[in-house]
Write a structure and sequence with these properties.
- Residues 1-22 form the signal peptide.
- It is a single chain.
- With 340 residues, the chain is α/β, with parallel strands linked by helices.
- The chain has helices spanning 2-13, 47-53, 80-86, 122-138, 177-187, 189-193, 222-226, 263-267, 278-293, 308-321, 332-337, and strands at residues 67-71, 89-98, 107-109, 167-173, 199-201, 206-208, 212-218, 231-232, 234-236, 238-239, 258-262, 297-301, 326-329.
- Strands 1, 2, 3, 4, 7, 9, 10, 11, 12 and 13 form a ten-stranded mixed sheet that branches. Strands 6-5-8 form a three-stranded antiparallel sheet, with no helix packed on it.
- Helix 2 runs parallel beside helix 4 (122-138).
- The longest helix is centred in the middle third of the chain and has 17 residues, at 122-138.
Length: 340
């Protein structure tokens, strides 16, 4: 319980915004807070500085190691992307909304329609900061000495300690999937041109990892994912629970480098009030093995979060027994600090 409270307090501290003069503070690095001290913020994580900081040893991902964690329910954080990557979390998710019928070309980010706000957008929360970070990690400046070495197909990723690690960006399409898909596709064209995205070349039949791997979920139409022309750079969140039923032609790592399911779908139960039994573990493990054989990573979401011993017990089963890849967490600090 004490650690839960500390987690809640610390994650709250991650949220401080500087609303006053100068550039907006996007996030505070988790190393910068101390529960015993009054938190003071400087503007070092302003968008202007995200790029510049990469040339120093103070970049937002400096000194943090990458963890196979998916930051679920990102929408309730003020700076979801930056909070996550500053903790080394490798996978993030944005719920996106689009209303072209109102002559509005903005792609909003939020959990529900009523939570949408002007200015809280895919650009402001994800595209602009990622653009700054990747510019920083891929440009050498005189004073950067030799710390930035281009080593991942010549392109560096967002994690300073491991440039070859991709960041999964799940984009959950909430409004019309066809319209939103086209919009998102065009928004990331530049990233693709810069070789900042994982992609599949349909002509050469090659999949290449890049700094960011975009995974469409929610209303993402599978046929649009499959028909992006020669280069596919938006992928499909494949159904882990159906891997025994769908054909390899339908779902494979060139379409779905990662597949997911809710735990409730996997066990076909409305509520999970107990640890998984041996049969359940075995069944899910078989699905995960099919995914791994096909070169696909796995994520199981919607796990119980209360009581805490059930939450943690299920995490252990999912990662240690079932051998699923990504731990899905709502509370980042709790996930990052969890002792296996
Ligand atoms: C895709 O593969 C084809 C065939 O090898 C090649 O000619 C083309 O340049 C590749 N496209 C990209 C963007 O890598």
């Amino acid at each position: 319980m004490a650690s839960l409270i500390i987690s809640i307090v610390s994650i709250t501290l991650l949220f401080f915004f500087k609303a006053s003069t100068g550039s907006e503070v996007l996030a505070t690095n988790h190393y910068n807070y101390n529960l015993n001290e009054k938190v003071t913020l400087d503007d070092q994580y302003s968008i202007d500085n995200l790029e510049k900081l990469f040339y120093t040893n103070k970049g937002i991902t400096h000194d943090v190691f990458v963890k196979k964690i998916h930051s679920h329910n990102d929408y309730w954080r003020n700076t979801p992307l930056l909070d996550a990557i500053s903790l080394g979390v490798q996978s993030v998710e944005a719920d996106v909304w689009y209303f072209p019928e109102n002559n509005d070309e903005t792609v909003y980010v939020g959990h529900s329609m009523k939570s949408l706000k002007k200015g809280v957008t895919l650009d402001s929360l994800y595209i602009n900061p990622l653009n700054a970070i990747l510019k920083g990690s891929n440009n050498k400046q005189d004073d950067s000495a030799d710390i930035i070495i281009k080593d991942h197909n010549g392109i560096n990723g967002v994690f300073d300690t491991d440039h070859e690690t991709t960041l999964y960006l799940f984009i959950d399409l909430k409004t019309d999937g066809n319209q939103l898909f086209d919009k998102i596709h065009s928004k990331f064209q530049n990233f693709c041109n810069n070789k900042w995205l994982s992609y599949y070349n349909q002509t050469s039949d090659e999949f290449k990892w890049g700094p960011i791997t975009i995974i469409g979920t929610g209303n993402t139409p599978l046929d649009k994912v499959k028909n992006q022309g020669e280069i596919r750079y938006i992928f499909f969140d494949g159904p882990l629970n159906k891997l025994k039923e769908v054909s390899e032609d339908e779902i494979n790592h060139k379409v779905s480098p990662i597949v997911s399911s809710s735990l409730r779908m996997l066990v076909q139960q409305l509520e999970i009030t107990d640890l998984l039994n041996d049969d359940q573990v075995k069944n899910i493990k078989e699905l995960v093995e099919i995914a791994h054989k096909g070169n696909m990573k796995t994520r199981i979401w919607d796990t119980p979060w209360w009581p805490v011993n059930l939450e943690k017990g299920i995490w252990r089963q999912i990662i240690n027994d079932i051998k699923s890849d990504y731990l899905n967490v709502d509370d980042l600090v709790e996930g990052v600090e969890f002792k296996w």
